[in-house]
Amino acid sequence: MITKIKEEILKLLGMLFYFLKRITHRFQLIRWLILACLTVILVVSTYYTIKVKTSNIATLKASLSTTTTIYDSDNHQAGSLYAQKGSFVELSDISPNIQNAVISTEDRTFYKNPGFSIKGMVRALLMSMLHRGIVGGGSTLTQQLAKNALLTQKQTISRKIEELFFAIEINHVYSKRDILTMYLNNAYFGNGVWGVQDASKRYFGKNASELNISEAATLAGMLKSPSYYNPIDHMQNALNRRNTVVNLMLQNKKITKSEADNAQRSVLSLKNTFRQKSGYRYPYFFDAVVDEAIHRYGLKEEDVMNKGLKIYTTLDQSYQKAIQDSFEIDGNFPATAADGVMAQGASVAVDPKTGAIRAVVGGRGRHVFRGYNRAMQMKRQPGSSLKPLAVYAPALQNGYHYDTSLSNKLQKFGKNGYEPHNVDNQYSDTIPMYQAVADSKNVPAVWLLDKIGINRGVQSMQNFGIKVPSDDKNLALALGGMSAGVSPLQMATAYSAFANDGNLPDQTYLIRKITDANGKVISQKSNDRYHRIISHRVAEEMTMMLLGVFSNGTAVSAQPAGYEVAGKTGSTEVPNSYGFGTKDQWIVGYTPDIVVATWVGFDKTDKEHYMHGISENGITRLYKSQMESLLPNSPLTKFKVKSAQQNEYASHTDDNDLKSSDSFQDKIKKGIDGLGKKVTEWYNGLKGLFKH
To answer: What GO biological process, any one, is recorded here (predicted)?
Structure first.
C-alpha cells in the first residue's frame, strides 16, 4: 500500500515538473525573472548612487571636526551648538593601543576592505533570517561611521542599503587614516561623552594619546553597549568585556602574549577630568536661531547641531548680556507665589530700522533646549500698551493732534452700555491727548476709538502687523482687549514704526547667513526692507506723547537714569474675586536705536498666582535695570523731538514772553491757526457722531 502511494506521489511530482518545464520553456519565465531582478538592482543602485553623490561627503570630516558656531552682528564668535560632538583630535594624538583594539574588535579587515565586508553582510543576512527581522552586526568601521554620522539608527532594509552605498563613497573619498580618525571622534562612549579624547578624560583622566592596552581595550569594548559595559556603573561587565577585547587583539597579532596577560591582570583606575564645554552662552537667542534655521531655511535640527555650520546672526552680545543679567536678579521681579512658583518674564530687543533681533530672553529659571520661549511664542493680552497702535496712531493719522482735548467723563458707550473706568478713578470734563497717554487714562482712549471708528482701529492694528480676530472688533480693543493676545516680539516690531519715522520693517529675523563647515553659503538673508504705515508727522507726535510716559507718566519709575526712552506701559487686571492685582504687565519702550518689549506675569493665572498691587509696579524695576545696562552700549542717537509736556511748557513760556510784543499780524495768524485746529476737531467729532 505504501509503495503504491509513493509511486503516485512520484508520478504527480513528475507531471508537475514536466508542466513547469513546458511553461518555462514557452514563456521564458526564468529569463524574465532574472531581467526583473537586474532591473530592480539597477534602479536601486542608481537611486542610492545619486543620493550619495549629492550628499557632499567631501565635507564630512570638516563637519565632524568642528562645532556649529554662532557669530554675532559684528562677526565675532558668540558661542557654539553641539549635540554629538566631543573634542576632535587627529589620529597622531590617539594611542595606537585604542586604534588596534577597535580594529581587532569591530573590523579586522579594515585596512584591506573597500568599505564593506561580503562575509559580514552574509553573516548579518543569515542572522536576520534566523531572527525573522533586520538585526545589527556585520558592518565595517566605515559602515558604522556612515550610520553614526549621516544616517539614523533604525534597523531597516533601506537604511542598510544606504549605509552600504555611503560606506563605499566614504572609502572612495577618504584615506583609511581619515576614516579611522572620524570614527574614533564620532563614537559614543556612554555618560554623555562622544569621542575617544573626551572618553579618555571621563574614565581615566588622561589624553587619548596616553591610553595603555587595558584602558584602550576597555573603551573599545564599550562600543558594543556603552551603558552596559562602562566601568563607572558596571565594573565587572567592563572587565569581562576588556578581557575579551584583549584576546581579540592577541589573535589579530596586535599585542604579544605577555602584554595580553599583563593587561588582563591589571586593575582599572578610574579618574574623571572631563569638563563639558559650555558654548550655549545665550540659550534663548540660540534656541530662536535653531528654530529659524529649521522653519525659515528648511534645515534639520541634527544638521544644525552637528554639521559644523557657521551661522551669522543679528545678536548684539552687550544687549543680550544686559537683559540676561537683569533676569538673574530676583529683586527685579514680583514676589514668588506661596507654593514656590516664580513670576515669569520675557524681553526682546529689535533694531527698528532693519527688524534685526538683537537680544532675546524667554523666561526665568531652568532652561530647556528649544523649550517655551515666552518672548516669541507666548501670546498674552497687552493691556494699555496697545492704545498707541489701536487708538492714538490712527487718530493722529485722521487729523487729531497730540494736544487735542479728549473727553474724560465717566460715561457709557454703544448699545450695550460699555462703561470703562480710569484705573485711578479720577475724571474730568476733558484732558489733552498727551496727558491721557502719559497717565494711561482708559475713558479718553475708548471715547477716541468710538469717534474715529472701530474699523480704523482694527485697520491700524493690521498695519502694525497684528491681526484682530472678529470677536475682538469692539471698543474694548482700545484697552488691549484681545482674546488671542500678542507676543513681546509682535509688540517690539509694531513699536519699531514709531522709532523709525513711521516705517515698519517687513520682517524680523535672527540669521543673516549660514555657511557649511568649508565656508560655502547655504542660506542668506535678502536685503532689509521696510514700508511706511504712518506719516512722519504722526510718528513724531506719537514719540512726543510716549516720551511723556517715561518722563511724567506711568513709566516714571522705569526711566533709566541719564537716558531718554519713549514707550508705553500696559497691564491686565485679575477678577475682583482674586483681590487687587494684575495678571499681565508690559512695557514697550524705544530709542531711535532700539526697541525693547518686556512682559512679566505668571504662566498660569489663578487666585494663588497673580501680581499683587498697582498696575505696572512689578515690571518697572526689571525694565529700568535692563535698559540702564543696555543703553550705554547703544549708539545713543538723540530723539529729534521733545516730550509733549516739555513742548507745551516751552510753548506757554514763549507765549508769556511774547504776549506784550506780538504784532497785530502775529495775533491774526495765531487766531487762524487755532481756528483751523478747532475746525478739524469739530469735523472729526461730527464724523464720529454720524458713524455711530
So the answer is: regulation of cell shape
DSSP conformation class of 388: I
In a domain, 99, yes or no: yes
Q: Are 41 and 106 in the same domain? A: no
Domain-terminating residue out of 265, 297, 314: 265
Residue at 77: amino acid letter: Q
- Other beta carbons within 10 angstroms of residue 686's beta carbon come to 11
Q: Are the C-beta atoms of residues 314 and 356 closer than 8 Å to each other? A: yes
- What is the tens place of the pLDDT at every residue in 201-243? 999 999 999 999 999 999 999 999 998 999 999 999 999 999 9
Indicate whether 3 and 113 sit together in one domain: no
In this structure, the answer to whether residues 46 and 110 fall within a common structural domain is no
Query: 3-state DSSP call for residue 531?
Result: strand
Evaluate whether 202 touches 212 at the Cβ level (below 8 Å).
no
User: What is the predicted pLDDT for the residue at 32?
Assistant: 67
User: What was the pLDDT predicted at 277?
Assistant: 74
Average pLDDT, the chain: 88
9 in any annotated domain: yes
Residue with cell 584583549: 246
Q: Does the residue 661 lie in any domain?
A: yes
Q: Which three cell numbers stand for residue 509?
A: 529675523
- Cα–Cα nearest to 638, from 587, 562, 553: 562
Domain range spanning residue 123? Answer: 84-265
Active site residue 384: yes
Claim to verify: residue 183 and residue 251 sit in the same structural domain = yes
On whether both 145 and 187 belong to a single domain, the answer is yes
Contact yes or no for 554/587 (Cβ under 8 A):
no
Return the pLDDT at 672.
Answer: 43
Phi–psi pair at 196, nearest 5 degrees: -70, -30
Q: One of 87, 384, 385, 643 is an active-site residue; which one? A: 384
Residue 114: which CATH number? Answer: 1.10.3810.10
Per-residue pLDDT tens digits for 247-288: 999 999 999 999 999 999 999 999 999 987 778 899 999 999
Q: Are residues 111 and 217 in the same domain?
A: yes
Residue 90 a catalytic site member: no
What's 415's DSSP letter? Answer: T
Residue 616 is predicted with a pLDDT of 66
* pLDDT 10s digits, 612-629: 987 667 899 999 999 999
pLDDT at 329 over 50: yes
Asked if 44 and 144 sit in the same domain, the reply is no
- Residue indicated by cell numbers 485711578: 424
Residue 570 neighbours by CB under 8 Å, 6+ apart: 382, 383, 384, 385, 386, 387, 440, 480, 584, 585, 586, 587, 588, 616
In this prediction, residues 378-400 reach a mean pLDDT of 97
Inter-residue contact 489 to 428 (CB < 8 Å): no
- Give the gyration radius of the chain's Cα atoms: 36
**Shared-domain flag, residues 49 and 88:** no
Those residues with Cβ within 8 angstroms of residue 246's Cβ, 6 or more apart along the chain or in another chain: 213, 214, 217, 255, 260, 263, 264
DSSP string, 21-84: HHHHHHHTHHHHHHHHHHHHHHHHHHHHHHHHHTS-GGGHHHHHHS-EEEE-TTS-EEEEE-SS
Question: In the beta sheet, which residues pair with residue 571?
Answer: 585
Catalytic residue among 73, 80, 106, 200: 106
In a domain, 36, yes or no: yes
